[in-house]
Hints:
Layout: H1 29-33, H2 41-56, H3 60-67, H4 69-76, H5 80-98, H6 101-108, H7 110-127, H8 134-162, H9 167-195, H10 200-205, H11 208-231, H12 253-282, H13 287-299, H14 301-312, H15 319-338, H16 344-354, H17 357-367, H18 372-390, H19 392-404, H20 408-428, H21 434-437
Helix pairs in contact: 2-9, 2-11, 3-9, 3-12, 5-8, 5-12, 5-18, 5-19, 6-7, 7-8, 7-11, 8-9, 8-18, 9-13, 9-14, 9-17, 12-13, 12-17, 12-18, 12-19, 12-20, 13-16, 14-17, 15-16, 15-20, 17-18, 19-20
Amino acid sequence: MPDEPHAPTRSTVPTAMRPEAAPPAPSSALAAADPAPAGGVWLARLLVVGLVLAALNLRPAITSLGALLEEVRTGLGMSGSVAGVLTSVPPLCFAVFGLAAPRLARRFGAAAVVCAGMVAIAAGMLVRPFAGGTAGFLAASALALVGIALSNVLMPVIVKRYFPDRVGTMTGLYSMALAVGTSLAAAVTVPLTQALGGSWRTGLGVWAVLAVLAVLPWTAIARARRATAGTATGPAAGAPVEGAAGPRVARSRTAWALACFFGLQATGAYITMGWLPQIFRDAGVPAGTAGVLLAVTMVMGVPLAFVIPRVAGRMRHQGPIVVVLGLSGLAGYAGLLTAPVSGAWLWAVLLGVSNCAFPLALTMIGMRARSGTGVVRLSAFAQCVGYLISVPGPILVGALYQHSGGWTAPLTLMAALIVPQMAAGVLAGRDRTIEDEA
């Protein structure tokens, strides 16, 4: 994928949204189901607002739970192993329901699916605090995670579709917003819970308000899509196109390398989000400080999630970035093993740098395919296979923690997983596309 063009193409309206740039007959099934809008600048700005608000909601359901995991375990009577299963529910939902995203996008349009995803997140987070037992809590969490799964897959697709000349910039923007939402939930959930009376149920439920706000712009965007489809003719009218040509992703070595890289970085990320506060608390760090340390880890993604995609988009091979991020993770885990309290802030920073493998993986999804159809299929394949790879990690960490009585074995495992992550990332970062290989 070439670097971002210079001045002649940097309009305030995305290329795909300008009438003169819209192709007369889109060949992609996604493009047919989600035609280029005719709303002009206002709709382009609404899309930016929608992307930011959606990204803000893609992690609070997870990191707010991580900050209150001990209270939730006590309140619901969970064992360490069951809590490990709970921290594995997010990647499992992302893998299973992310597979449905391309099909739903072809039928209803990507904007409508993201809108439904925001509704599911809001509903799940509203219902979850009132669950009377572990099963109900898991079910409500899964509802929110279904919405996150659909949006996870479609965010790179929407960027590629509506901002084709600014993939790096827009990926950086929503990655940065995702990091803000992640770190904000981690930092303020504990003090907010205390300020609202001390109930963990209130502390978790309050984040549904943010999801409700995200529903509003996506409702308007989806209605604009529907209005455009209703006045168009032919493929642009929104009729699904079955059998649209596209690469056979499973035949691509780069796709498999990217899926493995995505899965291993997700393993580390969800272990961190689910267990890092507990690691610090067991070492003697107060609960509020442990939540802030998780927030520090997450907030590192705010500037880096914007910078890394832009830098990666200008490099022919993203392997060097992969190695730097991996070495940061190894140093962070080594620090947690040897001096978890005295160096806590440094280890939190290093793990935050390592977790920025996520925006890098998203950027590479957009760079390893030439067509919109290719990006849809690669995004679904890499994320679904990757999240399946990540499912056992948090469960294994929870089991090791419960049976070993400490964090030496879990942290050793987490550090060991960084090595194959770097190897897969270097392979996925090579300058080639899945269309060439498949």
